[in-house]
């Protein structure tokens, strides 16, 4: 990886620079809106829309007068206009392609294509970063060595093998994986491209924020979803946080726009909310061992990423949701939006729909803002939520939502994860 | 319903007229392309990409020379560029909104809004047409009476109740349902809006073809998927056929363009391929009793629709696929495209991927065309496939793809359908 000391600073303009580099290689994924999701999110009980007898939309359609009437009561509802950034349609099915292409183009810039091709790149990952790096490297005919735990599921190994023949197996602990990576570096001179804890990765992922802002302006121009108040800007953007590359990059992009608050969303299962817990203890939590269905978010926040996440001027706060809330959200996304989003990618919307603290916070800010502007403030918060990836399978869905006895018992015992992996220890990326 | 004798003729220009009327009320759904699906469809064995160890894409990437080398051998592969019309993103989750809005706006035009409001509209359907008519009617504050078999699933009843309070239950046979409809007509003076067998419905559904053609031109302009040969036109368009409204409308739209062939796609399970069988016998088959997972395609082709389907100058042919082929296709759409498309909506792509007759026919036509043009013809067929709807549930997916013993046994015995309905008799729409 490029030496961090040679990297561009973590600023919005560096993200613009990263975007110029990676734009030819990535998809500009759509920013999707949905009136029914707006209504559901702005209703008193979003889970009611998952019942066999959901309420009619009329009753859920946000009515500005409701809030005005509710006045200062704590019963005021949060009002949302949602914008979904569909990175499930990104190359390899997740935002990770952005960071990987940025890391690889920066390496080429710094060392020259010949040296990078001679040495190759290496990483350890059983997830989306593995495929992303293999794709980015193969695009420039650079060898990619991917170290994967031998217990990885067949489909993930096969997915990575689509782009590189060099999949190398290791044990599943951090030490075992890192030993294999060290061997590859020693033997081949390969350059390590970590999944999240590096400026080039963070800047690459930050291009999600850049694109979202651009697309909000375009939408506003077409009147597709009418903007109120002072025009096209997000009141809030919320992304998943695992290692912290996506949240770090997005928060960096919006850091010069104090009116856009950036939030992170985590699963709470088995302590996977290490970010939120770290903020409470005022120090980064270094180890996570969770089998949350949001398998992309099982990692602890990275060292460099933590400096951004813990900076209140960049990240306004972190919120966590339960496994059941993630499942309910995934079902709404599937059945209402007709989109396949993996559990990790559903976590931000789960926070909007189900996290009571988040919803109270939004309602309260909206109340204060209305008072300040004598009721003339905009009635909704325009909230961007990042659907970070779509890499799940029919088999995983059947296990998560099926009534088969075996699957149900295993789920309850916490011994099976959404992708069928039986045992995972703080897997990266 | 408007008296057929007062309806516009079944021509492309009537479809343009229909589009002007319904455009304010429907979504212009996206036309989606996918390099990986192109490669899979153009490979020798598309099902290999569903194995735990799929081949790398390189081996599937269509290579023009392959075909030239294969020369006149019968081994030549068909080569596809696919365009998916995403009616799963349409209002109420299916193309049926188009026909329903056209039927209702035509009624208003003919009888005046006051009379239509006084009398209301009525239909019998347990499927997407029920919701579509209820939505279209409620948009103009017209009462909608929807007759549904009392065995309909809770979610479908609830879906229809979102838009109308007037859901009326009946027995599940045609006779029982029609008796209830007759009662409503007698009592309320309500106007019947049938699900497919009427010119206004056919013209409304035909706007799918109009939009696809427009979007292909736009795509071609941006160079998003490069057009070869004589520019932006479909070599073929393929839609599902149940009652025949969508296929009839689409074939009508392209009827003045002999270079674009229109095909229909059906499930073969338990005789649901009544269209194909009817063509062989040279007469419309009047009854179908199938529990195919493609539950929108369990109906026999309508009388008026049959006149279009049986007209070789409009519909080039019908092809059928098995339940397993539909399931494999739905998995590819879900896992590769990240889209939720209901089984009925996957049937056209299933024909492209798995129907041997269809694939041989395309390869043979491509060979002949190359010979005629001395090898200078375009290398691919540009094929539009309509993803007609996305109304399925997580529960249905878990039943279809799960390993739960009960579900599997019931599936094998053919006693359970994808939506959990236990018994269905030629349900319309």
Distance between the termini of chain A: 16 Å
CATH topology term of the domain at 83-90 and 199-222 and 231-397 in chain A: Rossmann fold
Oligomeric grouping of the chains: homodimer
Helix content of chain A: 40-55%
Number of helices of chain A: 19
Family (chains A, B): Belongs to the serine/threonine dehydratase family.
Cofactor (chains A, B): pyridoxal 5'-phosphate
Region (Disordered) (chains A, B): 45-71
Protein name (chains A, B): Threonine dehydratase
Description:
- The structure is a homodimer of 429-residue chains.
- Chain A is α/β, with parallel strands linked by helices and 429 residues long.
- Among the domains of chain A are: 83-90 and 199-222 and 231-397, Rossmann fold (3-Layer(aba) Sandwich); 95-192, Rossmann fold.
- Chain A has 19 helices and 10 strands.
- Chain A has helices at residues 12-22, 35-41, 57-60, 64-70, 96-111, 113-119, 128-139, 154-161, 174-188, 199-205, 207-222, 245-253, 274-281, 303-309, 323-337, 343-354, 356-372, 394-401, 405-413, and strands at 31-32, 80-86, 121-124, 144-149, 167-170, 191-192, 236-240, 261-267, 317-321, 381-387.
- In chain A, the strands form 2 sheets. A 6-stranded mixed β-sheet of chain A has the order 1-2-10-7-8-9, with helices on both faces. Chain A has a 4-stranded parallel β-sheet with strand order 5-4-3-6, with helices on both faces.
- In chain A, strand 3 (121-124), helix 7 (128-139) and strand 4 form a beta-alpha-beta unit.
- In chain A, helix 5 (96-111) packs across helix 7, helix 10 packs across helix 12 (245-253) and helix 12 packs across helix 14 (303-309).
- The longest helix of chain A has 17 residues, at 356-372.
- The first copy, chain A, is globular.
- The first copy, chain A, starts with 11 loop residues before the first helix and ends in a 16-residue tail after the last helix.
- The model of chain A is unreliable at 59-74 and 409-429 (pLDDT under 50).
- The interface between A and B is large, with 39 and 39 residues.
């Amino acid at each position: 990886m490029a030496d961090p000391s040679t990297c561009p600073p973590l600023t919005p303009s560096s993200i613009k620079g990263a975007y110029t580099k990676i734009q030819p290689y990535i998809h500009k994924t759509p920013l999707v809106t949905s009136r029914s999701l707006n209504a559901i999110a702005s209703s008193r009980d979003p889970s009611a829309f998952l019942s066999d007898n959901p309420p009619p939309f009329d009753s859920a359609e946000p009515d500005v007068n409701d809030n005005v009437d509710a006045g200062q009561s704590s019963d005021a509802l949060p009002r949302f206009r949602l914008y979904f950034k569909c990175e499930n349609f990104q190359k390899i099915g997740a935002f990770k392609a952005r960071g990987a292409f940025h890391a690889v183009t920066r390496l080429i810039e710094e060392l020259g294509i010949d040296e990078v091709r001679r040495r190759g790149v290496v990483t350890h990952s059983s997830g989306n970063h593995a495929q992303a790096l293999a794709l980015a490297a193969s695009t420039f005919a650079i060898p990619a060595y991917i170290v994967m735990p031998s217990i990885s599921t067949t489909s993930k190994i096969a997915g990575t093998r689509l782009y590189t023949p060099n999949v190398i197996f290791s044990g599943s602990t951090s030490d075992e994986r890192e030993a294999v990576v060290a061997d590859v570096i020693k033997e081949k001179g390969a350059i390590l491209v970590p999944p999240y804890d590096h400026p080039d990765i963070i800047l690459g992922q930050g291009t999600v924020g850049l694109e979202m802002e651009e697309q909000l302006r375009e939408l506003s121009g077409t009147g597709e979803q009418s903007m109120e108040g002072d025009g096209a800007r997000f009141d809030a953007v919320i992304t998943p946080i695992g290692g912290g590359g996506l949240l770090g990059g997005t928060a960096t992009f919006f850091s010069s726009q104090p009116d856009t608050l950036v939030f992170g969303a985590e699963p709470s299962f088995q302590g996977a909310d290490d970010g939120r817990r770290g903020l409470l203890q005022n120090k980064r939590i270094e180890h996570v061992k969770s089998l949350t269905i949001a398998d992309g978010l099982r990692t602890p926040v990275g060292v460099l990423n933590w400096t951004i996440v813990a900076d209140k001027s960049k990240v306004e706060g972190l919120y966590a949701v339960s496994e059941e809330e993630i499942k309910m959200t995934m079902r709404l996304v599937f059945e209402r939006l007709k989109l396949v989003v993996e559990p990790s990618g559903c976590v931000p919307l789960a926070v909007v729909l189900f996290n009571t603290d988040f919803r109270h916070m939004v309602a309260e800010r909206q109340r204060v803002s209305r008072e300040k502007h004598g009721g003339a403030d905009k009635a909704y918060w325009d909230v961007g939520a990042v659907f970070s990836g779509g890499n799940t399978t029919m088999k995983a869905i059947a296990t998560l939502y099926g009534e088969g006895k075996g699957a149900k018992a295993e789920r309850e015992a916490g011994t099976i994860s959404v992708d069928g992996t039986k045992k995972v220890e703080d897997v990266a990326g």
